[in-house]
Each structure stands twice: as C-alpha cells, then as structure tokens.
C-alpha cells in the first residue's frame, strides 16, 4: 500500500514515467541596520526567509534498463520558496526589491542543470545560475521554480556534492543555504498500526505507541533522523526523552526527537521505548501522529527551537524489528497515526481559532472539533467585517465548503466531513477592532452530552498590517 501525506510539503510529479522532486530550501535570516541623517525618514527594511528547509536533495537514479524510455522526463525541478516580512511590524507594507538568487553548482558532480526558467530571469554560466524574480511584498510567499536537474547516464548512486543558494535584495539582508545532492532515493515506510487496541479507553488513562520505520529505496539515509510526534484532541504527551524537544514544559502536544542514523536500505527499526500520551480526565477522543524525516529535511511546521524544553529521561533510540505490515510512502517521509475514543465519547467539544490576514485577503480554515475530527455539522457565526466564500464554479464536487444559512446575521453551517474536512473560506472585508464570532457543535441527539460548556468556542481576528 502506498500512501501520500497531504499538507504544505512539496510533492513529486511524474513526467514521461520519471519521478519529479520539487526541491525547496530553508535557512536562517540575519538582520542588519543602518543609521540615517537626523530628520530623514529611515527607509523601511524587509526580511527574506527560505521556507521548509531541505538539507539533502535526493535525485532519482535511472537504471540502465530504464534510461531509453525515461530520458525525456528524467529530471528534478529545482525551486526556492521565499517569504518576505518587514523588519519593523506595524509600520505598513514593504516589498523586498530587486531580488537576486544565485545558485553555485560548481561543487556538484554527475548532475547537469538546464532548462532555465526565463520567467524568473534565470541564466547559467560556468556553474553559476543567477535568477532575478519579481519583488515580494511583506506577508507574501513565492515558490520560484528556477531550473531542472538531470542525473548523467554514467552517474553512480551516492553523494553528488553540495549546492549553495544565496539570495540578495536591495533592502533585505543576504540569506544563504547549502544542500547536499544525493543520487538515488530512499523509500521510507512506516508500521501501519501504531496501536492494536480499538476499544474505547478510559478518560484519565495513558496510551503508549511505539512507531516503526523502514527504508525500501535504493540509497541509505545517512546522518540523523527526525521523529515528529503530535497529539490532537483531549490528550497530551509525557515529557520523557532527553533527545526530544517539546513545544511546552507542561502538557506538551508536540515533540521532535533527533535519533542517530543511518537508516540503511532494507532495514526496519522501531523506537526502543514507547511515546506516552496522557488522556484528559474529561477526554472523549483524539489522534496521535508520528512522522519520520531525514533530519536536514524536517519541515518548518514540525521544527522546535533549540531552547525548547527537553525530556528528563535517557535518550530515545531505535532497535531492529520485522518490516512486515508497513505502508510505503514518498521518499522523504513516512508516518503512522491512530485515532482513539474514550468511554466518554458523546461529550462533543469544539476548538476556537483565529482568522489571520490582511484586509482584502481570502483565508481558508479546515474546520474540526477539539479532537481533530467530528461526526456532525458545526455552526459558525462569522466575526463582523468578514464574509463567506462558498463553493465556486469549477471546483471539485467532492470538496466540502461551509455555506450561509443566514447571510444577514453571518450565520454559517459547515457539513460533517466525508473524508475531506469542510473548509471555511472567508474574505476579510474590513478591519473591526474586537470583532469576534463563534463555532459550536450540537449534542448527539441519541446520547446525553455530559458537558455542554465545551460545545461552543470563540473565533477571533488577527489583522496583519
């Protein structure tokens, strides 16, 4: 069974039978300032940042028997995802001007770089590719596809050198990032069932999960591995292991563990001790997700700072295990998850959320209850200054969108999910300080709800200048 995980990460496309990898680089931003003569208004500065760091770029290896039919599409497009922001938030919009992206490929081997994207102003001369994309306004993000990478026919699997990306701008500090090219692709896999139990568990109890991962690809994953754990719903993680960082010191919901590699081709490992989730005393349901990445490719959404709290116990490790009953995933990640219900399952609960953006922008929110999924409709009263955009002509019919029930009073219903979560799509029409709405769920008509106080939660506004 092959599984793909949706989300903000890039996805492979297929051209003429060959895999295509969208490579996105990430790095750190350093800022600097300059004084101005007294009486002159200082020019507003911008900041640029790479989104979703990928420290190791795996390129598809073409076997000799495949080269004839695969040659037309045997390339990996290279992209840089940039986000702009202001150095001084609250002082209005600013654009990062005259951006220049330079990619130094002189240290690479067995890879050629061609099909420069003229729309991004890309040119290549003696191993240096320079591109001049359009200005990026603060608060915006641009995915810049720059060129294609092609593995040469005489290439061997393994390390293919480093590529350095540098971005400059007239009014933003220089940022840079280096990625290691590897010819060949790991094929990560994960144990299908995180936990065999399917019966309801007791509120206030603990639930242990022991994830397992393998590599069914054609190259080893060298270096450290990241295991990201997230709990949604009425449960939290125990802060257990010293090589794991947690999002909070008390009752964390996320953990990011760094475990030494490698993960060789053909190997399968499970964690040598379990992760423990503590179920709330009034918990009804929830979900635990565990994801494996090569450490340099951990996406921004799963990163935690070095200063984050760590566990107090011995470090978590891997031990060999049987690789049967594993699901095969895209080559750069693998995940397992489980949903749980307790004997208090009929206590319907809902989470509040914030609508964040600029006036005039459209935002989409995946609507869910406090457990990360729900069994029935939810009801929304939109904050003042916000209007609903429902299902549009040309959109897939299976997509679920919230719809007005009383437009004048900003009343909206979001349908129960049928695989995809319903989407609340809104436009921020004007700024209304203190504007607030609500989201609520109704009790189960066939079973008493033991706590009606958690059936409604607030919707707030966060305006971006």
UniProtKB/TrEMBL annotation:
Record's keyword terms, sorted: Signal
Region (Disordered): 295-318, 435-465
Signal peptide: 1-33
Keyword Signal in record: yes
Source domain of life: Bacteria
Name the record gives this protein: Uncharacterized protein
Record organism: Streptomyces noursei
């Amino acid at each position: 069974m092959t599984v793909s995980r949706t989300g903000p990460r890039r996805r492979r496309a297929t051209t003429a039978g060959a895999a295509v990898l969208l490579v996105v680089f990430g790095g750190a931003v350093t800022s600097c300032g300059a004084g101005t003569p007294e009486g002159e208004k200082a020019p507003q500065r911008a900041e640029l940042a790479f989104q979703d760091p990928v420290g190791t770029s795996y390129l598809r290896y073409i076997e000799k028997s495949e080269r004839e039919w695969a040659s037309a599409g045997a390339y990996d497009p290279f992209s840089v995802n940039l986000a702009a922001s202001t150095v001084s938030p609250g002082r209005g919009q600013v654009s990062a001007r005259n951006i220049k992206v330079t990619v130094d490929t002189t240290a690479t081997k067995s890879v050629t770089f061609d099909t420069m994207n003229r729309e991004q102003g890309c040119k290549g001369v003696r191993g240096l590719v320079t591109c001049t994309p359009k200005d990026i306004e603060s608060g915006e993000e641009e995915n810049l596809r720059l060129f294609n990478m092609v593995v040469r026919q005489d290439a061997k699997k393994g390390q293919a050198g480093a590529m350095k990306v540098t971005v400059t701008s007239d009014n933003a500090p220089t940022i840079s990032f280096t990625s290691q090219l590897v010819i060949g692709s790991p094929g990560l896999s994960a144990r299908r069932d995180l936990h065999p139990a399917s019966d309801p568990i007791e509120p206030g109890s603990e639930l242990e999960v022991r994830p397992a991962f393998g590599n069914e690809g054609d190259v080893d994953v060298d270096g450290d591995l990241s295991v990201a754990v997230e709990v949604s719903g009425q449960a939290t993680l125990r802060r257990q292991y010293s090589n794991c960082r947690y999002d909070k010191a008390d009752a964390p919901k996320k953990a990011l563990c760094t475990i030494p590699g490698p993960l060789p081709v053909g190997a399968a490992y499970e964690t040598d001790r379990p992760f423990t989730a503590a179920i709330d005393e009034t918990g009804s349901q929830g979900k635990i997700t565990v994801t494996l990445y090569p450490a340099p490719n951990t996406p921004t959404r799963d990163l935690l700072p070095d200063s984050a709290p760590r566990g107090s116990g011995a470090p978590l490790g891997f031990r060999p295990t049987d690789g049967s009953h594993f699901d095969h995933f895209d080559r750069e990640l693998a995940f397992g998850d489980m949903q749980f219900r307790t004997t208090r399952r009929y206590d319907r609960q809902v989470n509040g959320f914030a609508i964040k953006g600029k006036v005039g922008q459209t935002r989409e929110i995946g609507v869910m209850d406090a457990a990360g999924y729900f069994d029935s409709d939810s009801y929304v009263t939109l904050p003042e200054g916000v209007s609903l955009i429902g299902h549009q002509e040309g959109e897939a019919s299976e997509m679920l969108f919230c719809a007005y029930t009383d437009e004048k009073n900003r009343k909206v219903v979001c349908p129960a999910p049928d695989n995809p979560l319903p989407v609340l799509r809104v436009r921020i029409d004007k700024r209304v300080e203190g504007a607030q709405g609500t989201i609520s769920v109704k009790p189960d008509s066939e079973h008493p709800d033991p706590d009606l106080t958690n059936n409604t939660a607030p919707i707030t506004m966060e305006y971006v200048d």
